[in-house]
């Protein structure tokens, strides 16, 4: 992996020496919502869906009141209020919680309703155990068969004090370098990076790989090129061409393991990309102080 020495990701533990090199690889997924009609549409909200092996992203543009309800939800899910002008009221058995502005909301299993008012973008992150939502994904057919090199999904331990609605401020100061803002729950880790102005310096890219999990990169503003390279194996039939795939907001890209990848902002104005992982990343979680709500959500015991 190639990180600048001043980037703390250069200190991440690597299991490359012990990992068994795979022989087969799955392709990437790119879903650009502007190219598609919304799957769900009312006077106040338009919604699109995309998925990975373990997760579904619901992307909604809201202008007015919009209610997102779940009945018998099997596990925790995440709601991201991506804009300052949004307000949400979350109702779950025995509690009602409100949140305003850019916020990550963790909603417990079971029945719940999230009512959003204002104008802006709302993202919902659910595992594919929510089969009704997974079926709505624009790329659902790509996952008719499981993708390669991804172990079965296992949720992380229950939160301290049990399941309840939890809210986290997405405007608090990020880490210094890398400038990450990391939160996790039992099902997801979210890296809500701040928007950047103008193109990324092409001399300061960060190609890296993950051995056994997908990375979901969601472009909320601007334009990016996702650079992806797969390993060569002894069997040439399994080789894949390099990708340099251009996307514009709003879009979802799912980057498969163990491809080498980096994302380059190329838009001339505001560019904004956030990353999602399902389940949470162990390597980021092992870094002291990186996950802002680690006290609420314990990591699994080392094996």
Helix and strand arrangement:
Blueprint: E1 29-32, E2 40-41, E3 45-51, E4 55-63, E5 66-73, E6 77-81, E7 87-92, E8 95-100, E9 103-107, E10 110-117, E11 119-127, H1 131-134, E12 166-169, E13 182-184, E14 189-191, E15 196-197, E16 215-221, E17 223-229, E18 243-248, E19 251-255, E20 260-265, E21 270-277, H2 282-285
Antiparallel strand pairs: 1-19, 2-3, 3-4, 4-11, 5-10, 6-9, 6-11, 7-8, 7-10, 9-12, 13-14, 14-21, 15-21, 16-19, 16-21, 17-18, 17-20
Write up this protein.
By secondary structure, the protein is an all-beta fold. The chain has a single domain, classed as Jelly Rolls (Sandwich), CATH 2.60.120.10. Helix content is 3%, strand content 40%. It is built from two helices and 21 strands. The strands form four sheets. Strands 1, 13, 14, 15, 16, 19 and 21 form a seven-stranded antiparallel beta sheet that branches. The longest helix has 4 residues. It is globular and about 55 Å long.
Keywords:
seven-stranded antiparallel beta sheet, 40% strand, mainly beta, 303 residues, 2 helices
Give the full name of the CATH homologous superfamily: Jelly Rolls
Compressed to H and E, one letter per element, the order equals EEEEEEEEEEEHEEEEEEEEEEH
Using the coordinates above, name the CATH class. Mainly Beta
Tell me about the biggest sheet?
7 strands, antiparallel
Number of domains: 1
The CATH topology turns out to be Jelly Rolls
Distance between the termini: 25 Å
Estimated share of beta-strand residues:
35-45%
Low-confidence stretches: none
CATH-defined architecture: Sandwich
Total DSSP E strands: 21
Task: Return the structural class.
Answer: mainly beta
């Amino acid at each position: 992996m190639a990180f600048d020495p001043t980037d703390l990701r250069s200190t991440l533990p690597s299991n490359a020496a012990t990992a068994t090199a795979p022989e087969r690889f799955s392709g990437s997924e790119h879903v650009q919502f502007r190219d598609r009609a919304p799957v769900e549409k009312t006077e106040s909200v338009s919604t699109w869906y995309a998925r990975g092996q373990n997760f579904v992203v619901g992307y909604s543009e809201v202008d007015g009141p919009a209610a997102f309800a779940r009945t018998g939800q099997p596990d925790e899910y995440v709601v991201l209020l991506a804009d300052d002008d949004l307000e949400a009221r979350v109702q779950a058995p025995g509690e009602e919680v409100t949140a305003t502005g850019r916020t990550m909301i963790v909603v417990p299993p079971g029945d719940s309703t999230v009512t959003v008012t204002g104008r802006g973008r709302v993202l919902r992150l659910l595992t594919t155990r929510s089969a009704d939502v997974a079926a709505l994904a624009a790329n659902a057919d790509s996952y008719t068969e499981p993708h390669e090199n991804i172990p079965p999904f296992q949720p992380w331990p229950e939160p301290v004090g049990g399941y309840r609605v939890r809210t986290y401020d997405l405007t608090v100061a990020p880490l210094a370098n890398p400038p990450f803002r990391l939160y996790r729950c039992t099902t997801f880790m979210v890296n809500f990076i701040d928007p950047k102005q103008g193109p990324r310096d092409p001399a300061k890219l960060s190609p890296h790989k993950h051995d056994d999990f997908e990375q979901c990169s969601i472009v909320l503003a601007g334009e990016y090129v996702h650079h992806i390279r797969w390993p060569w194996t002894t069997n040439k039939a399994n080789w894949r061409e390099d990708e340099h795939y251009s996307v514009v907001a709003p879009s979802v890209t799912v980057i498969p393991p163990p491809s080498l990848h980096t994302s380059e902002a190329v838009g001339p104005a505001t560019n904004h990309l956030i990353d999602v992982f399902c389940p949470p990343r162990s390597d980021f979680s092992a870094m002291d102080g990186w996950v802002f709500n680690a006290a609420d959500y314990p990591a699994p015991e080392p094996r």
